[in-house]
Amino acid sequence: IVGYGKHMEMFNIPSCMAIFVEAEVDLENGNTKLVKVAGGTDIGQIIDSKAVEMQLHGGFGSACIDTAIFEECILDPSTGRLLTSSLIDYKWRTFNEFPPYDAYIMESQIDSFMFKALGIGEISGAAGASAVLMAISNAIGVDIKDYPATPAVILKALGKA
Predict the structure, then answer these.
(1) What is the separation, in whole angstroms, between the first and last Cα of the chain?
(2) Model pTM?
(3) Confidence of residue 29 (pLDDT cuts 50, 70, 90)
(4) Mind listing the pLDDT tens digit for each residue in 141-161?
(5) What does the alpha-carbon distance between residue 61 and residue 75 come to, in Å, rounded to a whole number?
(6) In three state form, how does the secondary structure of 37-96 look?
(7) What average pLDDT score do residues 63-92 get?
(8) Edge-to-edge strands of the sheet including 101-106?
(9) CB neighbours of 46 closer than 8 A, spacing ≥ 6?
(10) Could you tell me the CA-to-CA distances from 5 to 1, 2, 8, 30, 31 in Å, in that order?
């Protein structure tokens, strides 16, 4: 018996993520503390709930909040080479240092693939850096336009540097 099959990807179904951040900013030194973060998504039919939760936490950590606060790319002005090229220079926190994160997962029957599921890979942290910058801007009453929002950037926005 010989059978033939074909799976066609559907790239027209969006995957979405919303992230909400509560931040406290010390107006004297520009240090930011993230108090609480919540993220929500609808990924269609859940196939592995623990894997989905871990992906949300991983995207939140590695692609989200520290990108907004710490991960500055510093270039050598004379050569144009990247000076922050290793994890020694490119700061991240450990997961134990992150603020509380609540993940909200909605499960619906999206007409997508045979399992009615969507992916949540890279999109899990995509909105996070913007959410952090907006939370900092709301906390200090001034829009932050530089990235990442280091203490120096915050003090400059406040007119203190």
Answers:
(1) 76
(2) 0.82
(3) very high
(4) 999 988 889 999 999 999 987
(5) 24
(6) EEEEEECECCCCHHHHHHHHHHHHHHHHHHHHHCCCCCECCCCCCECCCCCCCCCCCCHH
(7) 81
(8) 18-25, 32-42, 101-106
(9) 52, 105, 107, 117
(10) 13, 10, 10, 58, 57
Mean pLDDT throughout 117-140?
A: 87
Instruction: Kindly tell me the burial class for residue 111, based on how many C-beta atoms sit within 10 Å of its own C-beta (0-12, 13-18, 19 or more).
Output: exposed
Residue 34 DSSP SS3: strand
Mean pLDDT computed over 20-40 = 94
Q: Contact 51/26 with Cβ under 8 angstroms?
A: no
Q: Which of 12, 6, 18, 35 is nearest to 139 (CA)?
A: 35
pLDDT at position 113, please? 67
Averaged confidence pLDDT in the chain: 85
Q: What is the pLDDT of residue 90?
A: 66
Q: Give yes or no for a contact between 37 and 65, defined as CB atoms under 8 angstroms apart.
A: yes
Residue 91: per-residue pLDDT: 66
Distance in angstroms (rounded) separating the CA atoms of residues 92 and 84? 12
Per-residue DSSP letter, 127: T
In whole angstroms, what is the distance from residue 23 CA to residue 17 CA?
19
**Of all helices (H) and strands (E), which one includes residue 102?**
strand 101-106
Q: Which two tokens stand for residue 115?
A: 């399992």
